[in-house]
């Protein structure tokens, strides 16, 4: 997989120097490198530990179970407002990465220890569905069956997106727009 990862790092346009420095740190921590979800992913004993994420305004190192980790440096942030388990360290320069090197190594070890201990991030109880989706699922048995068959993450993605609209008409339009994808068993971002 090293050749695929090498090609990934050669081909990135934004955050290349920062990504390469971060890669070196992670490989120095004896992590395995693979490409998953189109990004460099680092694991230990077959378990995902962290992933490098190049964003428009920053480069992130996301720890999959970062919510379980102690954050003495105060540098871990949730990737988004609805994030349950992942936590990111964000960088905007090569100096940011260099200045965090010791913390990164410490956090990697903490993430490995959490995996070895079998720690799990508690999942939220159920999914809050918007009223319009509840009504539609009651009326459309085919849609309900397909929605119930989706993974909890896909269900949650639809619930958040549909419920994020301010107007009922927009929420209803979003249900109509994604009905076929739900029937196909796909999440919002699946291809």
Cα distance, first to last residue? Answer: 23 Å
What order do the helices and strands follow?
A: HHEEEEEHHHHHH
Shape: elongated
The radius of gyration over CA amounts to: 19 Å
> DSSP helix count?
8
Helix-and-strand structural type: alpha+beta
Classify the helix fraction into a percent range. Answer: 40-55%
Explain this structure.
With 191 residues, the protein is an alpha+beta fold. The protein is built from eight helices and five strands. Helix 5 crosses helix 6 and helix 7 runs antiparallel to helix 8. It is elongated. The model has no long low-confidence stretch (mean pLDDT 92). 48% of the residues lie in helices and 15% in strands.
Quick take:
With 191 residues, the chain is an alpha+beta fold. It has helices spanning 2-11, 16-28, 94-99, 101-116, 131-139, 141-149, 152-163, 168-183, and strands at 32-36, 39-44, 47-54, 59-63, 87-91. β3 and β4 (59-63) form a beta hairpin.
